[in-house]
Write a structure and sequence with these properties.
There is one protein chain. The longest helix is centred in the first third of the chain and has 24 residues. This protein folds into two domains: 143 residues, 2-Layer Sandwich (Fructose-1,6-Bisphosphatase, Chain A, domain 1), CATH 3.30.540.10; 110 residues, D-Maltodextrin-Binding Protein, domain 2 (3-Layer(aba) Sandwich), CATH 3.40.190. The strands form three sheets. The chain has an eight-stranded mixed sheet, with helices on both faces. A five-stranded mixed sheet has the order 12-11-13-15-14, sandwiched between helices. The protein has a two-stranded antiparallel ribbon with strand order 1-2. It has 285 residues and is of the alpha+beta class. The two termini are 33 Å apart. Helix 1 runs antiparallel to helix 2 and helix 5 packs parallel to helix 6.
Length: 285
C-alpha cells in the first residue's frame, strides 16, 4: 500500500473502522477549533507555562463521547485529565488541541492529534491542521499520507543543510541549561531551527520533508503518539536522545529523515545536553 493514495479499504481489517472514526473525529474537532479561533477564549492556568482553554475541554469532550459510544471497550488517555485505560486491549491517545498557547494568542499554528494503540504499540495516527486544512494519517505497516497522498521524509544527509524543529518544555526553568546549550549548538550547525510550539504538527512536518529533523524533551504521550507513527511510516526514524528505541512514555523525542539522525544524536550527546536524572512526565499504565 505504500506510495499509493489513501484508501480505508486497503487497510488491515482491524484498523478500518478505527481509521474512519479517527478521521471523522479530527474533522469535526477541526471545525470547532476554526469556529472558536480568534474569538473570546477563556484561559485557565494548569501549571507553570502551561494553560488550557475552554476549547480544549469542549473538543476533548466531543472526541471522548464519540469514542465511548463507538468503541465502548476501548481505553482513552487524553491530555485534559482523562486516563481510563485499565484492562483494555485498544487505547486511544488524544490531544484535543496541541498548540494551545498559539491558539489562545491568535497564532494560526495548532492541531488535533488522535492515535490508537494496541497492546502498547501505536497502530494508527491522525493529525489535523484545521487552519491549513491538512490531514496527516498513518497506519502501521501501510504508509503515511497528507490529504490522501503519500508522504515521505527528506533526502538531506548533512546537518549543515538541515532545517530543524524543536520545542520548549512547559517546565522550561527546570531544563533551561540543557535546552539553551542544545539549541545554540544546533543553530550553529544547521540551516536553521524553529520552535513553532506544536510538536504533533512538527513531527508531521518531518514526515513530509518540511523539516529534516526534530528534537524535544519532556513531552507526554498525546504530544507524540500520532506524529511519531506518521514519521516512521514516512520512512523516517524515531528514538530517544541516546538513540534507543522510541517510547511515547519516555519523554525524549528525536525524529529525523534517518540520514541525519546520528548527527542529531551526536549534538545532543555533547556535555550538558541531556538532563541528568530525568524522569518523564507520565508513566505507562
Amino acid at each position: 500500500m505504500r506510495a499509493r493514495e489513501f484508501s480505508v479499504a486497503r487497510l488491515p481489517a482491524p484498523l478500518r473502522s478505527l481509521t474512519t472514526e479517527a478521521i471523522s473525529l479530527a474533522r469535526d474537532a477541526g471545525r470547532i477549533l476554526r469556529r472558536r479561533f480568534r474569538t473570546a477564549v477563556r484561559v485557565t492556568v494548569k501549571g507553570p507555562a502551561d494553560i488550557v482553554t475552554a476549547t480544549d475541554v469542549e473538543v476533548q469532550a466531543l472526541i471522548v463521547r464519540r469514542i465511548r459510544r463507538r468503541f465502548p471497550a476501548h481505553g482513552i488517555l487524553a491530555e485534559e485529565g482523562l486516563d481510563a485505560t485499565a484492562g483494555t486491549e485498544w487505547r486511544w491517545i488524544v490531544d484535543p488541541l496541541d498548540g494551545t498557547k498559539n491558539f489562545a494568542h491568535g497564532i494560526p499554528s495548532f492541531c488535533v492529534s488522535i492515535a490508537a494503540e494496541r497492546g502498547g504499540r501505536v497502530e494508527l495516527g491522525v493529525v489535523l491542521d484545521p487552519i491549513h486544512d491538512e490531514l496527516f494519517a498513518a497506519a502501521r505497516g501501510c504508509g503515511a499520507w497528507c490529504n490522501g497522498r503519500p508522504i515521505s521524509v527528506s533526502e538531506v544527509s548533512r546537518i549543515e543543510a538541515a532545517f530543524l524543529g524543536t520545542g520548549l518544555p512547559h517546565s522550561v526553568r527546570r531544563f533551561a541549561g540543557s535546552v539553551g546549550r542544545t539549541f545554540t549548538r544546533f543553530a550553529a550547525r544547521s540551516l536553521g531551527v524553529r520552535d513553532r510550539g506544536v510538536g504533533a504538527l512538527d513531527l508531521c512536518y518531518v514526515a513530509c520533508g518540511r523539516f529534516d529533523g526534530y528534537w524535544e524533551i519532556d513531552q507526554s504521550p498525546w504530544d507524540i503518539a500520532a506524529g511519531g507513527l506518521i514519521v516512521e511510516e514516512a520512512s523516517g526514524r524515531m528514538s530517544n536522545f541516546r538513540g534507543e528505541p522510541f517510547d511515547i512514555f519516555g519523554g525524549e523525542t528525536v525524529a529525523s529523515n534517518g540520514k541525519i539522525h546520528d548527527q542529531i544524536l551526536a549534538v545532543l550527546a555533547m556535555p550538558g545536553g541531556i538532563p541528568k536524572r530525568y524522569k518523564p512526565p507520565l508513566q505507562r499504565r
